[in-house]
Amino acid sequence: MVRSAIVTGAARGIGLATTRLFLEQGWQVAMVDRDADELRTVQAGLGRTMAVIYDVSEPEQVDAMIAEVVTGFGQIDAVVNNAGVADFGPIEETDFARWRRIMATNLDGVFLVSQAAVPALKATRGALVNIASISGLRASTLRVAYGTSKAAVIQLTKQQAAELGEYGIRANCVCPGPVRTKLAMAVHSQEIIDAYHDAIPLNRYGSEEEIAEAIVFLCSEKASYITGQVLAADGGFESTGVGLPALRG
Q1: H-only helix segments in 50-95
Q2: Fewest Cβ atoms closer than 10 Å to its Cβ: which of 20, 73, 84, 222?
């Protein structure tokens, strides 16, 4: 039987790259996003997919989404919680509404989708992969809400692994470092790009496809004895957190 995956935030970026890699490896994918127009546009050229338009921060919509996928595919073998909001700003300018908007998608969405998918994942002894960030592993400026949400996703993943392992469900977390997305390249000045290159041992940004490789691996049988792990796909960025790049020369 064809294995089935849910990928949230699938209309662009890492979610879309992950969808394409799943398809290359013979899976079928429920592409979830709240951006209906963009999702339908990218999904139109792909096979073995269904466009599932819901907001993962809304409990009722999440329940409906899981039901639609189970009806359409018959089973769920993997869930990739990739949907997220990247919104950066100083602590003093982060009001509660901004804080909650980030937490609603980045943390609440992961909790809600995972919880709703548990019965289906029990049936297949499936996999959860939550997408956090290097910002959840190391603090940085302007990321009080974003970084905190991603750190919470890391802990949530460990809780899921501890509690769901007895059902054969594996839960792991991928923490991307700087990724060369269209959005990043549009807002990162050459000074910022150079600074990231200096701070990353591999001296470059990652690609969406490289992050997808880590995600799909953790969903596969090749990772059948891996759970509760946090994988930084970051070019070594996290390992240099207490170093000064200028001293490395």
Answers
A1: 59-73
A2: 222
Closest alpha carbon to 121 in 169, 165, 85: 169
Token output for 199: 């701070």
Phi, psi of 23 (to 5 degrees): -60, -40
Give me 140's structure tokens.
Answer: 């940085």
Q: Is 88 left (phi over 0), alpha (psi -120 to 50) or beta?
A: beta
Q: How far is CA 180 from CA 45, 176, 184, 187, 234, in A?
A: 23, 11, 6, 11, 12
Q: Is 54 a catalytic residue?
A: no
Inter-residue contact 201 to 245 (CB < 8 Å): no
Q: What's the pLDDT tens digit per position in 144-171? A: 999 999 999 999 999 999 999 999 999 9
13: left (phi over 0), alpha (psi -120 to 50) or beta: left
Catalytic-role residue among 54, 146, 196, 205: 146
